[in-house]
Amino acid sequence: MKKFVDEKANLLCPKCKKDIEVSYKDILTHKEAICKKCGSGHKFSSSDRSSLRSAVSNYERAQDNFGNAMQKLIKGADVL
Ligand SMILES: [Zn+2]
Fold it and tell me: Is pTM, for the whole model, over 0.90?
Protein backbone atom coordinates (compact mmCIF):
# COMPACT_ATOMS: atom_id res chain seq x y z
CA MET A 1 0.00 0.00 0.00
CA LYS A 2 1.21 3.45 -0.86
CA LYS A 3 2.28 5.33 2.22
CA PHE A 4 0.57 8.56 3.04
CA VAL A 5 3.90 10.37 3.45
CA ASP A 6 4.72 9.60 -0.19
CA GLU A 7 1.73 11.61 -1.34
CA LYS A 8 2.70 14.73 -3.25
CA ALA A 9 1.63 18.26 -2.59
CA ASN A 10 2.07 21.22 -4.91
CA LEU A 11 3.37 24.44 -3.45
CA LEU A 12 3.34 27.65 -5.39
CA CYS A 13 6.71 29.31 -5.72
CA PRO A 14 6.24 32.91 -4.54
CA LYS A 15 9.09 34.01 -6.78
CA CYS A 16 8.39 32.51 -10.21
CA LYS A 17 4.80 31.30 -9.57
CA LYS A 18 5.58 27.77 -10.72
CA ASP A 19 4.46 24.66 -8.85
CA ILE A 20 6.99 23.01 -6.58
CA GLU A 21 6.16 19.35 -6.12
CA VAL A 22 7.06 17.97 -2.71
CA SER A 23 6.00 14.87 -0.87
CA TYR A 24 4.94 15.13 2.75
CA LYS A 25 8.05 13.11 3.54
CA ASP A 26 10.21 15.79 1.89
CA ILE A 27 8.60 18.43 4.06
CA LEU A 28 9.12 16.37 7.20
CA THR A 29 12.72 15.48 6.48
CA HIS A 30 14.11 18.39 4.48
CA LYS A 31 12.76 21.47 6.27
CA GLU A 32 12.50 23.30 2.97
CA ALA A 33 11.40 22.98 -0.63
CA ILE A 34 13.60 24.09 -3.51
CA CYS A 35 11.96 25.42 -6.64
CA LYS A 36 13.29 23.50 -9.64
CA LYS A 37 12.58 26.40 -11.96
CA CYS A 38 14.26 29.32 -10.21
CA GLY A 39 16.20 27.56 -7.47
CA SER A 40 14.77 29.56 -4.60
CA GLY A 41 14.31 27.75 -1.33
CA HIS A 42 11.24 27.90 0.87
CA LYS A 43 11.76 27.11 4.50
CA PHE A 44 8.92 25.62 6.53
CA SER A 45 8.46 26.73 10.11
CA SER A 46 9.34 24.08 12.68
CA SER A 47 6.00 24.43 14.47
CA ASP A 48 4.11 23.91 11.21
CA ARG A 49 6.27 20.88 10.47
CA SER A 50 5.64 19.38 13.88
CA SER A 51 1.88 19.80 13.52
CA LEU A 52 2.10 18.16 10.11
CA ARG A 53 4.14 15.33 11.64
CA SER A 54 1.52 14.66 14.32
CA ALA A 55 -1.27 14.88 11.72
CA VAL A 56 0.58 12.33 9.57
CA SER A 57 1.01 9.90 12.46
CA ASN A 58 -2.65 10.28 13.47
CA TYR A 59 -3.64 9.63 9.88
CA GLU A 60 -1.42 6.55 9.59
CA ARG A 61 -2.73 5.19 12.88
CA ALA A 62 -6.30 5.67 11.65
CA GLN A 63 -5.37 3.91 8.42
CA ASP A 64 -3.90 0.97 10.38
CA ASN A 65 -7.00 0.76 12.56
CA PHE A 66 -9.15 0.74 9.47
CA GLY A 67 -7.05 -2.00 7.87
CA ASN A 68 -7.20 -4.13 11.03
CA ALA A 69 -10.95 -3.67 11.37
CA MET A 70 -11.42 -4.67 7.73
CA GLN A 71 -9.25 -7.78 8.19
CA LYS A 72 -11.22 -8.75 11.27
CA LEU A 73 -14.51 -8.22 9.46
CA ILE A 74 -13.40 -10.32 6.48
CA LYS A 75 -12.08 -13.14 8.69
CA GLY A 76 -15.15 -13.05 10.90
CA ALA A 77 -17.64 -13.19 8.05
CA ASP A 78 -19.84 -16.28 8.24
CA VAL A 79 -20.00 -18.63 5.29
CA LEU A 80 -23.58 -19.13 4.18
ZN1 LIG B 1 10.50 29.44 -8.40
Answer: no
